[in-house]
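anyone else get weird line breaks when pasting these?? whatever heres mine. first is seq + tokens for prot A
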Amino acid sequence: MPLSRIQPDRYQDLLTQKIHSVSELMSPFSPPAPQSYASPPTGFRLRAEFKMWHEGDDLHFVMFRKENPKVPVVLTEFPIADKRIQQTMPVLRELLRESDILHRKLFQVEFLVSLAGDLLISLIYHRRLEQAWEIAALNLVTELQSHAIRVSVIGRSRKQKLVIGNDFAREVLPINGEDFRYRQYEQSFSQPNGLVNILMIEWVCKQASNLCGDLLELYCGNGNFTLPLSRHFDYVIASEVSKMSIKAARENLVDNGIENVLLVRLSAEEVSQAITAKRVFRRLHYLPKALDQFNLNTLLVDPPRAGLDEHTVKMASQFPAVLYISCNPHTLKRDLQTLHKTHDVAQFALFDQFPYTDHVECGMLLTRR
């Protein structure tokens, strides 16, 4: 995103335009007026990645414009990033410049920060990292911590990963008066806008408070929704294909003492095949009973930008209630063209996860007629 698009003084007008555009897109399905949840206009982004540009012994954080991808734009500020990322960037740049071992063939830096205060920095190289790099990286962590920065550093190159500290950021999300603890692993998905994520989880929990029985959740990730939703259902069957996300979700369930969530490593399409008995999966053998024996009245889906596959849409049409979280209104509209044949849009919400872009997160509660 070009820095010129970041206009905090116009944030509310830009959000109003976005709400109007998405409302028009969804109008064929007669939803109620959307509840809208704004983001802070600056300092909201918990993840950021930058290319590193070398000029002799100097080093800069840069980005590239789509229309001119070979000309770097040097960053002197990045106001949408969390303030801890903003504060760390100039300190880190100077420390990297001073160390030949740390900046040699460094081509990318990634930041992951949590609302709880952890900062994870990944340094990515076009060379193999030796023991000397580990010593220099340990000194880097010590220097950053002297600036009151609670940090871990990861070095990456081809088929290599070296960790100084942790390879995850610890997060604590206050949801409806209860704190939920998460591990967010490096290079695994986590919501980029922490404060809006809390609003989104609370909205989903509010819709769930009027539902009952058991929940089937697809694309559960590290348990972002799973943990708080466990308070509203007898059982939660949560599926995910990413091994790292499943690992994080299992650790998060244990850390929060949650025992009514059952994790399965299946894709959305595989879950639909299991529910309709088209395939038998050994990965489901540990469940206390067959999937069709659970009281699965509610389905939660939070798919990637491509939306739902046709098998999952067909399966969703059989559920009394569907909670659909979408990061792409256009694929949501496509899926609703099928789901609206059986369901009405009972609740509609817009969460501005991505200010100054055309992207917006949508939440819908669909109820079967």
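and prot B, same format (seq, then tokens)
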Amino acid sequence: MIPVFKPWLTPGNIFDTNKALFRKQISGTSSFVQKFETEFSRMHENINSTAVSNGSVALDIVLQSLELKKDDEVIIPSLTIISCLAAVTRTEAKPVFCDINESSWNMKLHNIKDVVTENTKAIIAVHTYGLPCEIAEISDFCKNEGILLIEDASEAHGVEVNSKFCGTFGDFSTFSFYANKHITAGEGGMILSKAKESHQKIQQMRNLDFKSEPRFKHDNFYWNSRLGGLQAALGYSQIKRKTFKKVIRKKQIQAKYYDELLDKYNYLFSLPVRELSGVKNNYWVYGLVLKHSDIRDDLLKRMLSDGIQCRPFFWPLHKQPAYLKNYESSGTFENAEKVGFNGFYLPLGSHITKKKQRLIIRRLVSNTEELINSE
């Protein structure tokens, strides 16, 4: 079996993580948590950092900290992880979807302008699958309109726009450190918050509303969303040793070889964009979109039976059963549906060799053509 991903972990990363274990620095109060937060802040223009248990929790805490009201609206792209939608639904605000660009798989400013209203309180700008959205333009728009910008940079570690890392444009930014991310802690997340008051509130929200004095007297029912010391030590090591930069370079090399292997099959697949507005794709995943509809799921089953794991793209949020059970249909978002229903990604990571890439593409092309011809 060729799994869809395996993380890159260096001997140095393992050594640094073992340090936390040997020192018994394994809890959420470990000194490695503070080191991780400090190093992450340095990487992102010294913006206030708060480490949390995962990226979904990061979104939840940010949305809850805003104390949104019933008539408030939050715009999110329809093609993204359900965590973005779930975080909005757990507030009193209304989720509002926008469409995406068919080539970049990201929201663009004009998609936002199509749905923005006087009730728009916040926008969750997501960088999807390795390319950034129009974050500089969206940031300027939000500042001019007085709209809060939440930047979900979980899939854009190390991506720079105008010489700034993704995650430095929003009033708040969230990150995930799941095992398949370019900076990994196994699990884990981070919140960047520019305002000092917001940062202080978020720190209390991730830690049961603990204050220094009196310790066990609480004013709010907050959560325990702390990150453990072992996870923090691994994340800290990956930044300190710049492991993520090596990972991105290796993935870009793997992606280039996939591009070469797929070059003559452009009648079957739309390939990921290599570069957009001077920003290179960091290839969090190597995604493809089928040009022939309604065969994606059967294709992935065939690939799995051949011992090759692939994964479908995100299911469009406006089509999620959980959303439709609780809200009226938001209409049609053509590009989100086209990309979401026909997109998938190939194995990429430390376990992939050129030999395996050639095998993957041979089976991919063969299975795709067989399915098309059988219709």
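btw re prot B: Residues 204 and 210 are 6 Å apart (CA to CA). The longest strand covers residues 120-126.
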